[in-house]
Each structure stands twice: as C-alpha cells, then as structure tokens.
Amino acid sequence: LTIRASSYADELVKTAKTIASPGRGILAMDESNATCGKRLDSIGLENTEANRQAYRTLLVSAPGLGEYISGAILFEETLYQSTTEGKKMVDVLVEQKIVPGIKVDKGLVPLPGSNNESWCQGLDGLSSRTAAYYQQGARFAKWRTVVSIPNGPSALAVKEAAWGLARYAAISQDSGLVPIVEPEILLDGEHGIDRTFEVAQKVWAEVFFYLAENNVLFEGILLKPSMVTPGAECKDKATPQQVADYTLKLLHRRIPPAVPGIMFLSGGQSEVEATLNLNAMNQSPNPWHVSFSYARALQNTCLKTWGGRPENVKAAQDALLTRAKANSLAQLGKYTG
Ligand code: 13P
Predict the structure, then answer these.
(1) CB contact at 8 A, 56 and 85
(2) Which residues on adjacent β-strands are paired with residue 294?
(3) Is the minimum distance from the CB of 74 to ligand 1 under 6 angstroms?
(4) Euclidean distance between CA atoms 79 and 105, whole angstroms
(5) Is the shortest distance between the CB of 281 and ligand 1 below 6 Å?
(6) pLDDT band at 34 (very low <50, low <70, confident <90, very high)
(7) What's the confidence (pLDDT) of residue 5?
(8) H-run or E-run covering 141
(9) ipTM summary value
C-alpha cells in the first residue's frame, strides 16, 4: 500500500517555514460576520460590509506590518474584498510580505449525545472551497474547534474535535494550503492549571494520533493551541513563568519537532498578558518556532483607538504596530515591557 503524498508537499513546507520565521507571527483577523459585528458594536458601529471593509483596510495597510507579521488569517468576505482604495486586500498583504490565510471552518454547533458540548462544521464541500481559496491567493488555512473543561470534556467531544481537525488538515494540504490546527481549550472555568494540563495532554495526544492516521505532512502544518493556564474564574492566578513551564513541558511531551510553528491563540488574555507569556516561553531554545496567532490581543486597543473615525486611522495603526512589535520581541524572548 502506498500513500500518495500531496503534490504540493515542497510548497507546504516552504509556506509553513515562511510563516514561522524569526520575530514574526500571525494576525488573526478572520472574525466571522457575527463576531465582527460584536466587535464593531463595542465601538458603536453598525455591522455593515462597508464598516468591516474600512476596519480591515486599516489593519492590512498598517505601514511596515510585515516586519512583525508573517501571515494574516482572513474571513471569506475579506479574501474576495478590496480595500477602501480599491486594491485587493490579498495584494496589499503580499506587498507587505504577509502570507494570506483563510478561515475554512463553518463554526460550532451543539454536539448531540454530549454534555452540552460542541463540534465544528465545514468538511462537506471543503476540497472545492480550499481549491478556490488557493486560486484566490490564500496559502494557509485555519480550522478552530473548541473543548470545554467545565462541560467535561467528554471522550466523544475530544475524539470528534481531533478527527475533524485531522480530516481538514489532510484536505487543506491536498489543495496546497498549510493547515493551522487549532484545538482551543476554552479558558472558561474555575479549574486550576493542573486540570488544564491534564485535559490538554489528552487533546493534543488525540489530535496528533489522528493527524498521523490521516497521513498529514507534519512539516507542512502549524499548531495553534491554547497556552496552559488556570481557568479564567480560578482564584489562583499563574505567573508568566508558570504558564511557560507548564506549556513547554506539554509541548515537549506531545508535539513532534517536525512541526515548524506553534502559533498560540490569546483566548481572552489581556494584550500584555499574552505578550509576557509568549516572552517567558522564549527564554530558552526549543525545537519549534514558538509564536503568536492573536486576534483580540493584537486588535483590542487598535479597534478602540479607531472608534470608526477616519481621523483616528493612523493612531489605530500605531496601536496595532505597538502590539505586533511587542509580540515580535516576545517571539525572540527579548520583550522588556
Ligand atoms: P484570540 O487570539 O482572540 O483568541 O483569537 C485567535 C483566533 O483566531 C481564535 O480562533
């Protein structure tokens, strides 16, 4: 029995390496229209295509962004959209030396037979969508599924999350897109850091088991995990050093060094917390590129500073660049605050 390798194998390895390059990480700007609506609502703006376009134009055209950002994850609307100046968003990113990526999952729905848990949709028709996204200029993909600690997680929910990620990863690689594998372990809950460690250990094991079973090329994926932290409502807080110790211990136990990049999500951490934790993880050499793929921890201040006003665009871009630079330094273990 011979397994056919993706005809894109060399390109996948190259793309993954480019995204995982020193001092750079990913800008997640792939909020679905519903989530983007919540962000716009927080600054008193209506969720119209024009407002989403204005905000995303601001992000992709921040001058010099590519020094700190190697990849940007887009929602489908943005992949096909032009900036307010009429240039393709994708072309602006490429000019900034930022690889365009695309969110390909179709979101979470209740998982029947579980403890009020969810599963992630989007495998039906995925190969024709990934082929079209490649044509449109995307070179990597993202699929986010979640596991809840307070609701279990049940063995069923973990297995479904892992299997879905593995099928998506194989399909993406077959279309030339580097899959970001994102099993998010939600922050919600009162549990301590040891419980998060235990759950993540199980989840990461299953994810890599099914990735291997689906003959996914490990050199051509990126992992986007949650950091190992206490639950958001836990009384005991963790220091960046503790988060780094737990998270690195788990990476060493579970993640093959063939995986080129570990691009953490921020998951509701504050902007500074997310930077400090990343910096702590990069104080000693490790086999991977340990970096960031943040949405909220890159965008929160930027969005607030903009407030929907054209006269604030420059200040908002500066706020984005400040966070991007801080996380770039943290990727190098050189952030000093
Ligand atoms: P946060 O960094 O805001 O958690 O978002 C990252 C992301 O892309 C979640 O899928």
Answers:
(1) no
(2) 27
(3) no
(4) 15
(5) no
(6) very high
(7) 73
(8) strand 140-147
(9) 0.91
Q: Please give the pLDDT value at position 280.
A: 98
Residue 226 has what pLDDT?
97
Q: Tokens 């229209």 — which residue? A: 33
Q: Does ligand 1 have an atom closer than 6 angstroms to the CB of 298?
A: no
Q: Is 336 left (phi over 0), alpha (psi -120 to 50) or beta?
A: alpha
Would you say 34 and 2 are in contact if contact means Cβ atoms under 8 Å apart? no
Which whole-number Å values give the CA distances from 166 to 123, 143, 204, 221, in the listed order?
Answer: 11, 10, 12, 11
Widest pairwise Cα distance in the chain: 63
Q: Residue 264: helix, strand or coil by DSSP? A: strand
pLDDT above 70 coverage of the chain, percent: 99
Sign of the C-alpha dihedral, residues 261, 174, 138, 204?
A: negative
- 119, containing H or E segment: strand 118-120
The answer to whether 101 and 72 are in contact (CB under 8 A) is yes
> In 3-state terms, the chain is what percent helix, strand and coil (to 5)?
45, 15, 35
d(CA 129, CA 135): 10
Alpha carbons 213 and 110: distance in angstroms, whole number: 26
Rg for the chain (alpha carbons), in Å?
A: 19
Q: Is 325 a known active-site residue?
A: no
Structure tokens belonging to residue 39: 């962000």
Closest residue CA from atom 4 of ligand 1: 267
Residues 6+ apart with CB under 8 A from 237: 230
> Measured between alpha carbons, how far is 280 from 330 in angstroms, rounded to an integer?
8
Where does the pLDDT of residue 1 fall: very low under 50, low under 70, confident under 90, or very high at 90 and above?
A: low
